[in-house]
Amino acid sequence: MKTSRFFAVTFCLLLVTGLLSLCIGSASQASASPLRVLKILTSVNWFNGTGIADADKTARIITLIRLPRTLGAWIAGAAVAVSGAVLQGVLANPLAAPGIIGIHAGAGLLVVLCLAFLPAAAAALVLPFAAFAGALGAALLVVAIAQKTGASRITIVLSGIAVSYVLNGIIDTITTLVPDALGGYSDFRIGGLDGLTMTKIVPSACIIAAALIVLMLLTNELDVLTLGEDTAAGLGMRTAGMRILFLILSAALAGGAVSMCGMISFVGLIVPHICRRLLGAESGRLLPGCILGGAFFLNLCDLIGRLAARPYELPVGIILSLIGGPFFIALILRRHRQ
Amino acid sequence: MIRTHDLYAGYQDAFSIHCPDISFADGCLTAVVGENGSGKSTLLRTLAGIAAPVRGEAFASECACYCAAAVSSGKKVFADEPAGETAAAPAVLSGEENIFSMEPSIRARRISYLPQSRNVPEISAYRLVLHGRFPYLSWPRRYRKEDEEEAERCMQEMGVYTLRDRRLSDLSGGERQRVYLAMLLAQNAGNVLMDEPATYLDIHHQMRLMEMSKKLAAEGRCVIMVMHDLLMALQYADRIAVVSDQTVTEPMEPEKAFSSGILERTFGVRIGRISTADGWRYYYETVEGTAFGH
Q1: Which chain A residues have a beta carbon less than 8 Å from that of B122?
Q2: Looking at residue A127, which CATH number applies to its domain?
Q3: Fewer CB within 10 Å, N side or C side of chain B?
Q4: Predicted pLDDT of residue B206
Q5: Which ipTM score applies to this complex?
Q6: Which one of B108, B122, B134 has the shortest CB-CB distance to A280?
Q7: Rounded distance, CA B186 to CA A235, Å?
């Protein structure tokens, strides 16, 4: 597919889905026409939060609930998709996703610790930060172990799996001893976008934006590293250090997303694969493609989850698994055939 | 030119291959031959500076003729003056630099290396060749117009310009090999190291590869190629270095490699030859005296 057409189509899809997810939701009585939504959004004074009539329930739902949720889906989807694309390239492993370097287990551990040992109010407050710290901490631990052996691709994957097992063991110990933490941890593990507010989004968005900017400056480095260890070294790259830098950047991206909406990972598998097929593996095109594609796909899944079982909601993580699982299987079968 | 000084390549506590004071000359296609597992690839990775040596030194320099060509075309070849000589270190010839203490990007401008196993990323042939210019970029690494022109020129030289926009995964093995060679060419280094580049290629692609490698050497480069095929090494190489008993011999002319019997001793075969209008053609002798080969 031509690159420009891919970006045009994906961008339009993203805008349409975004607008739809503002117009409709699980609260069917608060549906609004796109025109009305645009009018509401333009009438709000975003600097001091005024302009929403207190009595207008629909306007409040749109600006205070659906807008943060849509933006959150865009940011998290883009972050996880790019994180997956980078990991797949750096580890030369088509099935790599953020979970493979221990990000999910690390975030999960700190979340479950907060839920088990902090009062509920305090836990809710520190949860996003704990999740981010856990994600980055686990990734750094994996990198530190792998670095002892020259940070080869296979030791990174193996130590990622080993660290995940240990951390998950600790998580299970805590949830066994403090069963009260299980409910909150389960929500986190499934992953969902409900309850997002602008104040929850901003810290993650800043980290994710910073990581994305750095990555876009390093696209040629990423491409050369993807050529393989020896070829990259022959071209004068310090491969071990570069690989670690990319791991930390993808951990920051995935960690930022995890702290907003829990463990969503299939976006990081599906979107990079589709984008790579359509755009090629050249990072200068692949990463922007993943930003748009990931934002669109997570937003779409969230929208489906909100509408599929109205008036209830299915968390976006469940929809992702239901779509992502079969895709994963098809991917394995396809690779097997080749 | 690449020169070693009492170099041991390999792994500290397991296996190492000894490279005494040896020179790989400019203008020569030097074949490195040895049995499987003799450490040829390890030696090449060490000479390329991407594997640390167990101990010893190796030095790389640009050949005079090649330097002159590069300088006249406005390219900067020597990024740094060679480090000052110290009394204890082995004598460093003018223009030489220690491979193991060079800045990686500077080293990559002087030594290009084609590994035996290469990934096949989903990028275009042109993009791959462009990555040959990677060592010449400073941060943020964006390819400039001159890099693009150089990449296109190298693609033309290797006869792969028509494959410009094809994806690597869509090319045949021979085509992909030539694209990789164009990348090597774009790296514009005076020392070109290749690890069994002929493996998996059809025979006419192999012969074409050898002709191209000879041409690179004839232009003044130091071309070092790990080879599997003794007969091809005898026919095409200007020098042959033999790895036997974990030691590398001084590169010798094919005539000497043949007549001294070192190849026959190392590989446990008998090699015969017949004179043709194009020079010697070599073949393996079987026990019965029948022949097959070139």
Answers
A1: 276, 280-281
A2: 1.10.3470.10
A3: C
A4: 87
A5: 0.83
A6: B122
A7: 11
